[in-house]
């Protein structure tokens, strides 16, 4: 398959990343099928796309006609088989848990056309292990966007052990066609490259506060005005989802060792379901 053959992209999962990826694909002119497990989740994702497109139009980053056209290219689904029946590429953005993703790929393999290419937006999990659930490991790779996808330039294109060169080329071209900057990651290691840097940053920030050495606002001011990142470490954790960062850390801890031990402060937030912007409360309040 070549870039010109891609017409329809199915995005599985309408959460923070899924709806953002669907928006980016629709803005690039693809027909997008956005699918989640129930009407409420998928409609919420659709509403977020509409909100974001309106915001971009309001700021004259796109025209109102662009926004309307992009929204018109997004169709919502609950039935997985229907959503992938004519998909050229499936981008999977379901929760960051190996068991959940493997179940989705088992169902997907049975439902999708043979030639459809699968790309996972996993933040850290083994692309090779996920691909093994399917019968198309050569047409399977990582396509890792960053939050918020519509604003962030980078897409990591990750090769699993059996990903073909054609698939890597296709997904790299696809990312470019979405106006992104793809970076190929040829070794499938936990957290790939970006999250090996970003997630320990959030964790270390939490350890500093946990140990009483500084406050949340001291750490965030330092990250922003001293280290020069666009957001403070805790603002970033709230933006990404504290649960997402926590699950990535758990996996890196399990595979890479003690340097990645998640800070209890993150675990407490996850247990209290104070996950950041998406729940209205994390390290900061958003209501
Ligand atoms: N769509 C449209 N508008 C959006 C938006 C979206 N998805 N998200 C935010 N905005 C809007 C805000 O509502 C705000 O609007 P108002 O001004 O009307 O209030 C506006 O954008 C803010 O934009 P600005 O350009 O003024 O703000 P900014 O320059 O700070 O940019 C940012 C915002 C791009 C998010 C920037 O802060 C940034 O780059 N932050 C770092 C994000 C980052 O590092 N992401 C990676 C996280 S790690 C990850 O995702 C990997 C993983 O797997 C865990």
Automatic annotation (TrEMBL):
Belongs to the 3-hydroxyacyl-CoA dehydrogenase family. It comes from Halogeometricum salsisoli. Keywords: Fatty acid metabolism, Lipid metabolism, Lyase, Multifunctional enzyme, NAD, Oxidoreductase. The keyword Transcription does not apply. The keyword Oxidoreductase applies. The chain holds residues 1 to 287 of 659 of the full protein. Residues 8-188 form the 3-hydroxyacyl-CoA dehydrogenase NAD binding domain. Residues 191-286 form the 3-hydroxyacyl-CoA dehydrogenase C-terminal domain. This is enoyl-CoA hydratase.
